[in-house]
């Protein structure tokens, strides 16, 4: 642990304005427990313009924030290093970058953020690669085993605009998935409510249930094979594991899905060398948060997915 011995005074700029003071402090004071953040606010040790505030106070441009000395966890440079192959390789995965956005073709097998036994994820790795960046936050998430287009905001103002686009369903996401058997031509839309369960192990399992949240996915057949179908999936809502569970619900689970898949189907695909979930975020359409230009980002399939399809075509 390291102790920040001196009182800090921070003036809020336009890009930082609009967020709650507790969220601002959680971002700024990395490694400080959430309970301590709320304690120093409650005790009046955090002051804004010399006055006490509550955790829900939204900071404004020009606010002068007093931050008391706190104990912070040391950064684990031994765990996260720009020299690590996985982290360094992310530079080659960047599809687009400007002052507002960073768009990545996320590799399969890498979590989007640390936690749940993962030392670090995409966002922590990017912060190491971009030490000069004052702000880097995920706009949305992808499952650890899912690859493809991942959007990161480089300004808080950009994050707000992009989150609004997600809420208003102005952002269009398309995925490619290889599913078991022959997907029926008449199944174009699945509307099935999804219920999230957390097991004792901490693992998240999602299932269709009447008490679940409304969920909708559109499906389109891209290519048929003897024992599988390549489909394009467009989620209208953004629930956890939505495409995976909807595919399972249709009795056409996704290849190599270790939670919702079919072992017999996976074994049939062993000849293709497929060892990862065949779910790939292939494209994302959005409105640029600053220029308001309509942008489309396409992420190519990785070599393992390409090889799998090539072998299926030969069969």
TrEMBL record:
PROSITE patterns: PSI_RLU, S4. It is an enzyme of class 5 (isomerase). It holds the Pfam family S4. The keyword Nucleotide-binding does not apply. It comes from the Bacteria. One of its GO terms (molecular function) is 23S rRNA pseudouridine(955/2504/2580) synthase activity. Signal peptide: none annotated. Keywords: Isomerase, RNA-binding, rRNA processing. Residues 19-78 form the RNA-binding S4 domain. GO terms for biological process: enzyme-directed rRNA pseudouridine synthesis. CDD domains: PseudoU_synth_RluA_like, S4. The active site is at 143. It catalyses: a uridine in RNA = a pseudouridine in RNA; uridine(955/2504/2580) in 23S rRNA = pseudouridine(955/2504/2580) in 23S rRNA. Its EC number is 5.4.99.-. InterPro entries: PsdUridine_synth_cat_dom_sf, PsdUridine_synth_RluA-like_CS, PsdUridine_synth_RluC/D, PsdUridine_synth_RsuA/RluA, RluA_PseudoU_synthase, S4_RNA-bd, S4_RNA-bd_sf. SMART domains: S4. PANTHER family: MITOCHONDRIAL RNA PSEUDOURIDINE SYNTHASE, RIBOSOMAL LARGE SUBUNIT PSEUDOURIDINE SYNTHASE C. Belongs to the pseudouridine synthase RluA family. Responsible for synthesis of pseudouridine from uracil at positions 955, 2504 and 2580 in 23S ribosomal RNA. This is Pseudouridine synthase. It comes from Arsenophonus nasoniae. The gene is rluC.
